[in-house]
TrEMBL record:
Similarity comment: Belongs to the ABC transporter superfamily.
Organism: Methanolobus sediminis
Domain ABC transporter: start-end pairs: 6-235
Gene3D superfamilies, sorted: P-loop containing nucleotide triphosphate hydrolases
Listed name of the protein: ABC transporter ATP-binding protein
Lineage of the organism: Archaea, Methanobacteriati, Methanobacteriota, Stenosarchaea group, Methanomicrobia
Taxonomy, superkingdom: Archaea
GO MF, one annotated term: ATP binding
Keywords carried by this UniProt record: ATP-binding, Nucleotide-binding, Transport
Amino acid sequence: MEPGIIEVKGLRKEYGDFVAVDNLSFSVEKGQIFGIVGPNGAGKTTTLKMLSSLIRPTAGSIHMKGLDIATNAVEIKSFLGFLPEESPLYEGMEVDDYLMYFAELYCVPKDQAKKRIRELLFDLALNPDGKKIGDLSKGMKRKVAIARSLINDPDVLIYDEPASGLDPMTSRYITDYVRSLKQSGKTIIFTAHNLYQVESLCDRILILKGGRLVTLGTAEEIRKEYGKIQYRLEFKVDDITDYNISEVIKEVDESYVVITNDIDVVNQTTKWVASKGGDIVEMRTIVPSLEEIFLELMGVELFVD
Ligand SMILES: Nc1ncnc2c1ncn2[C@@H]1O[C@H](COP(=O)(O)OP(=O)(O)OP(=O)(O)O)[C@@H](O)[C@H]1O
């Protein structure tokens, strides 16, 4: 198999005695959207900061396009765009001037920078109307930070919670925009707490907990490996007293509900209901969402009605 555009091996970060990231290995293929999820403090931001050369790993290696980040950080930065979780912007500046300033830092020729800024503002539906950055809404500020991350037209984007804390419309806009960046050939690693967003957007997902990899794969692979398919059978009978097929039975409205992962329980219950002259109200399969699997992997007990 060809090496990925990003290859991470045995990555570790210690802060004093505390191990924030431990023996993390993964690879990202060109043109993929790769999502990193995990509870607060899992080590997501620390990982992204190491990928962006903002902090140095304690151990392990990171290669991008075959270049070792330990010795080629400057070259890697030229094709990398980083969006921090909280991006301090120069509040007193106007958006165009701010983006032009970063374009100059990245040595983008002026004419090219002007064209690029125009395109970015258009694509992100950003119309600052001469306002200073400090006077923009939170969603607009996030869009400015995204525009800044793209000013040098990088191939690899590292986005820390790009759409968090925004209203649903802006959040959706940014999610769709990230999808369009993939379509234009960019490789994107991002972190998020919204697992529906991650599931709909990512080619591959890495789940982190306590700095360690819990699992890595497509949403489908993770679902297959960890998701227990359950059956929910709802029925009506006059007398439930001699039912003893499943230990877990609930009364919901006028019906009884059995939830089980054992198809035999479903078959036996169906027969028992028929023998009692009762009716099956509904029988359905419950496929777990990524969010449910995530919560279960994190040790949170789930209840299904
Ligand atoms: N500079 C630092 N010094 C000491 N500990 C740190 C430092 N930065 C992060 N940590 C610790 O490392 C752990 C991982 O932090 P990190 O910010 O990477 O988590 P995260 O998964 O991004 O969390 P969140 O979802 O809350 O953003 C946390 O326990 C955090 O307190």
